[in-house]
Sequence to fold (434 residues):
Amino acid sequence: MSNPSTPTEPEYLPGGPDRTVLHTSDGGDPPKTISPPSKARAWRRRWWSLVLLILVLGTGAFLFFHQEAKPRPAIATGRTRGAGRGPGSIPVVAAKARSGNIGVFITGLGTVTPLNTVTVRSRVDGQLMSVNFREGDLIHEGELLAQIDPRPYQAQVVQFEGQLVRDQAALRNAQIDLARYEILLKQDAIPEQQLTTQKALVVQYEGNIKQDQGLLEGARVNLAYTRITTPITGRIGLRLVDPGNIIHASDANGMLVITQIQPISVIFTVAEDQLPPIRMKLRSGQKLPVDVFDRDMKTKLASGVLSTIDNQIDPTTGTLRLRATFNNRDDVLFPNEFVNARLLLQEKRGVTLIPSASIQRSTRATFVYLIRPDNTVVSRDVTLGTTESGQSEIISGLAPGDAVAMTGVDKLQEGSKVLPHFAEDGQAPSGDGQ
Fold:
C-alpha cells in the first residue's frame, strides 16, 4: 500500500488542444493545468533566424559585386587616355611619314692600306754601332735612325783623295812637257811622234783623274750610308736588328719597317655593275665622300674621299678595286685593318621617308597599314626607293604626315580598330585620330 504522503510523479494528460492537465494520484489537490509555449514565441524565433540568413547572404553578395566593380589595370603597355575608345582596339606602335633626305650608298669590303711602306735596309756592310729610335715612334723624313761603323769608309775616302792628288800632279807635269814639245817641234828639235805620244799621255792622266774623282765620290757616298736616316714620315715597327750585329746590304729582312699612316688609304671593292655611275661622277669633277665603319658596321671610324679607281676589273670575281684616302689625324685607322667602306653616290633631298619596320611584303605587293583618322587601318600599296639606316624612301603611296603601323601588324586586317602609340613623340592620338 502506498504512502499517501509521498507524492507521485506528475502525469501529463491531454487536456485539450490549448492546455495540458497535470494529474496527480495522491487524491489531495485537484488536477493543475499547465499551458504550452505559445505559437507567437516560436514564430519570432523562426523570423530572427530568417533575418540573420538574409543579412549574411546580402553581405556576401555586396562584397562580391563590389570587388568585381573595381577598375583593372591595362594589360598592354603604352595605353594612355586613348584607352576606352571602344572594345576590341588593338594596341600598335605607329610612326608618321616625314619629308627628309636620304643618301644612295655603295658599300664594299675593304682593307686599310698605307700609301707608303718602307723596309729600311743598310746600303753598306758593317757593324751596327747605335740605334736612335724606339719601336712604335712616329718619325719624320730625314731623322737619324742608326749608325754603322764609318771608319772603314773614311779610310777609303782618304785613300781615293790621295790617288786624286797624285794623278792631278802627274797631269800637270804631262801638260808642261806637252807645251815644251810643241815648241821644240816647231824648231824641228824633236820628232813629231814624241809630241803625239805626249798628247796621249796627257789624256791618260785626265782619265785617271776622272776615275779617281769617281772612286772618291763613291767612297763619300758609302760613308754617308753609314748614317741611316728615315726616307718617309711614318711610324716605326718592331726592331729587326740589335746594335752590335754585323749587317750587310744583301740582308733580306732589313733593319726595320716604316709605315706611313698620315694620310692613309682604304682599298675596297665594288661590283662591276656599279662602275658606270661612279665613273660618271668622277668625270664631272665631283668628289665622292667615303665613310669607313668597323667590322660590325656599327661604329663609324673615319671620313674621306674617293681618290682613284683601278684600271681593270677582276674577271674571277666581277669586282673593281677603289682607293679612298683619309687624313687619319687621330690614328683610328690601322694598316691592314679590315673595314667596311660606304661610298656616297647621291643624296636625295625632300623625299618621303618612313621606318623600314613598317613595310610589309606579300606575294603580290609591298604595302603598309595606314592608320586613318578614326583609328582604323587600311592596307596601302607603296613603291619603295632607297633604303638606308632603317629608313625607306616612299616613291608613291604615302605622303608626309600619314601614320602607319610598325608593330602588332600580325593581328591587323582591313578595317581593324587600333590604339596607336607613336614612337617618335611617345603620345597616342586623341579620339579624332589627330
Remarks:
- The two ends are 115 Å apart (CA to CA).
- Helices lie at 39-68, 151-186, 192-225, 275-283.
